[in-house]
Amino acid sequence: MFMQEPTKAAIPGRTRSTVLLKRWGIGLLAVCLLAIGAYVFFTKSGEAQPRPAKGSLGPARAVPVVAVAAKRGDIGVYLTGLGSVTPLKTVTVKSRVDGELMAVLYREGQIVRSGDLLARIDPRPFEAQLTQAEGQLIRDQALLKNAQIDLARYRDLIKQDLIPQQQLDTQVYLERQYEGTIKTDQGQIDNAKLQLVYSRITAPISGRVGLRLVDPGNIVHANDPSGLVVITQLQPITVVFTIPEDSLPPVLAKLKAGEPLPVEAFDREQKRRLATGSLLTVDNQIDPNTGTVKLKAIFPNEDNELFPNQFVNARLRLDVKHGSTIVPTAAIQRGPQGAFVYVVKADQTVGVRAVTVGVTQGDEASIETGLSPDEMVVVDGTEKLREGSTVDVKTQTGDTPKRRP
To answer: How far, in Å, CA of 215 to CA of 360, rounded?
Structure first.
């Protein structure tokens, strides 16, 4: 008897999902075996590659740097401070008489000289006053002349005992009264002439005229607060700036010795020099809130570079150090042990050299100790350098520097 092979449907507990899971498991195992085989193959082939020996590495690459030679020269000791331009004189021109403003004879912003005619006020009322005062003087002069004639006559009559003494005395004092009246009349004439002078408004100082404050046709008065125009003196002009109180003693010592102290005025960015002058004076007290003292410098300002109330950076030259070793400030590095520079040696390597920095002025600094003139120092490319690093040196012009024999 033959037994019939059981079908899948006849196997108890087996499902279609179980069969699918087995198939996926077999496929995943095959993929893992292939990956392991490929890893072993490539690893072995890599080990078969020849490795370079330790001593076969090429020479270290030179670091490109820019270097300059330290130089010997003079460097100034400066004090700097923020200041403002202050004119020596600022005048608000006002009318000294009342009247109608007839004409304005200046242009706004014009440079005027002392005595130049600026404006005119209607002079006719003052001319009338002058005529009246002159007429009064003529009348009183006639009265005085008559009194003098009567006095002479009375003196002759008193000698003949023809009139009483009281009449003569009265005539004497009448003459004096007329003399006083004539002086008063002369004063009125002088005042009327002065009013005529004041009706012509002139510049009291030389300087720059500001904007017009009153137009022609307006009635102006001597007590008007705003005035007619403002004139500011520009030549010479001063700058008031501040320095720390600790820097005051050497400045006072120089002034006491009579030494001139040059002062330079620079723009806000301290890149362009506007004018050169000299220190004029020092304030008489220190500001306790800021610990600074005010200094005033005077400038010829021939080019009109300085303008009133302009903010400038003032630089006072206190001293000059001669024969100093000078390097660019970019060459000076800072570290835990202090300042140092990278010095280029003859074998195209660099060494770290500790230095003592003296006066720093702009882009240059003096070196007190640690460096000699003509030694090459690195100014660009220092971030990649170490003691003994090989360098490819270029100058700031792009050329390779020549070594001294």
So the answer is: 55
3-state SS record for the chain: CCCCCCCHHHCCCCCHHHHHHHHHHHHHHHHHHHHHHHHHHHHHHHHCCCCCCHHHCCCCCCEEEEEEECEEEEEEEEEEEEEEEEECCEEEECCCCCEEEEEECCCCCCEECCCCEEEEECCHHHHHHHHHHHHHHHHHHHHHHHHHHHHHHHHHHHHCCCCCHHHHHHHHHHHHHHHHHHHHHHHHHHHHHHHHHHCEEECCCCEEECCCCCCCCCEECCCCCCCCEEEECCCCEEEEEEEEHHHHHHHHHHHHCCCCCEEEEECCCCCCEEEEEEEEEEEEEEECCCCEEEEEEEECCCCCCCCCCCEEEEEEEEEEEEEEEEEEHHHCEEECCEEEEEEECCCCEEEEEECEEEEEECCEEEEEECCCCCCEEEEECHHHCCCCCEEEEECCCCCCCCCCC
Strand partners, 350: 344
Q: What is the pTM of this model?
A: 0.66
How many Cα atoms are found within 13 Å in the side-chain-facing hemisphere of 79?
23
Tell me the C-alpha distance between 96 and 100, whole Å: 12
Residues in the chain: 405
| Per-residue model confidence as pLDDT tens for the chain (405 residues) | 334 444 444 444 445 555 555 665 666 666 666 767 666 555 444 443 444 444 444 456 888 999 999 999 998 888 999 999 999 999 999 999 999 999 999 999 999 999 999 999 999 999 999 999 999 999 999 999 999 999 999 899 988 888 899 998 999 999 999 999 999 999 999 999 999 999 999 999 999 999 999 999 999 999 999 899 999 999 999 999 999 999 999 999 999 998 899 999 999 888 899 999 999 999 999 999 999 999 999 999 999 999 999 999 999 999 888 889 999 999 999 988 899 999 999 898 999 999 999 888 878 899 999 898 989 999 998 888 888 889 888 876 655 555 444
Q: Which residues contact 187 (CB under 8 A, 6 or more apart)?
A: none
